[in-house]
Amino acid sequence: MNITDPVKAAPGEGSPEHTSETSSITILAREDLQNTFLCNSLNEQLEVDVTLSSDFSVPSMRTDGGAILLIDAQNHSGEGVIRMIEDYQRGSTDDGGPKVAFFNISAAADDELRRDYVGWRCLRGLFRERANVDHLVRGLRVILEGEFWLPRGYLGSLIVNGTRPMTAAVEDPGLTQKEREILKILVLGKTNEEIATSLSISPHTVKTHVYNLYKKLGVNNRVEASNWAQNFLGRN
């Protein structure tokens, strides 16, 4: 199955590359042969402790800001996944609570999630059905570095769904007209190259503008920029 690389903030675009502060990954899934193999594979390829648990209740680790919960969404509808996200969200703050990622997202659940996505703070990653181990490793490395691993199209949903911003900034940050144009395209999930083509400028120029607008907005990545854009650009 061909899986398009999800949107993520590339190192150097808006902030220095993060160092991993995550202490562990817990896979919440049935303790069967397939998931045991997945757990062992991730343990071999990632530089953190990976364990497997079949306890889907919100664990005590919800206050551990260094934990990633990798939850098996098999046989769960989009609505069911959203209920789990909201449960973890209640125990998550900017400085604490687990980072939540889901794997085995079905096509139907993906459609529901995309439609209702509102930038939940705790949700850091989504992996679709039949994503292989290499794909999971790539995405988890991004999450370990403090970024997001979300399929294309989710960022644009932030504006459609009227998400409240992750940051408190509501005053005019002094964006230039070009920075505003780039921001409006960036939140749709476009790459720097695609933005450059759309605006007839070079990718290097786009990268410079993205870096500057991140600094002005006080954000670190595309998800936070999308939340800000919904709040600010919708009023100006």
Rg (C-alpha, Å): 18 Å
Strand order of the largest sheet: 2-1-3-4-5
Work out the helix count. Answer: 9
Helices and strands, in N-to-C order?
A: EHEEHEHEHHHHHH
Q: What is the makeup of the main sheet?
A: 5 strands, parallel
- Percentage of residues assigned to helices: 40-55%
Which runs of at least 5 residues are low in confidence (pLDDT < 50)?
A: 9-20, 162-171
CATH class of the largest domain: Alpha Beta
What does this protein structure show overall?
This protein is of the alpha/beta class. It folds into 2 domains: 24-146, Rossmann fold (3-Layer(aba) Sandwich), CATH 3.40.50; 153-236, Arc Repressor Mutant, subunit A (Orthogonal Bundle), CATH 1.10.10.10. 42% of the residues lie in helices and 12% in strands. The chain is built from 9 helices and 5 strands. It has a 5-stranded parallel sheet, with helices on both faces. Helix 2 (78-90) packs across helix 3 and helix 7 (192-199) packs across helix 8. The radius of gyration is 18 Å and the shape is elongated.
What layout of secondary structure does this protein have?
Layout (H helix, E strand, L loop, with lengths): L23 E5 L4 H13 L3 E5 L13 E6 L5 H13 L8 E7 L1 H10 L6 E6 L4 H12 L9 H7 L16 H10 L5 H8 L3 H15 L4 H11 L4
Parallel strand pairs: 1-2, 1-3, 3-4, 4-5
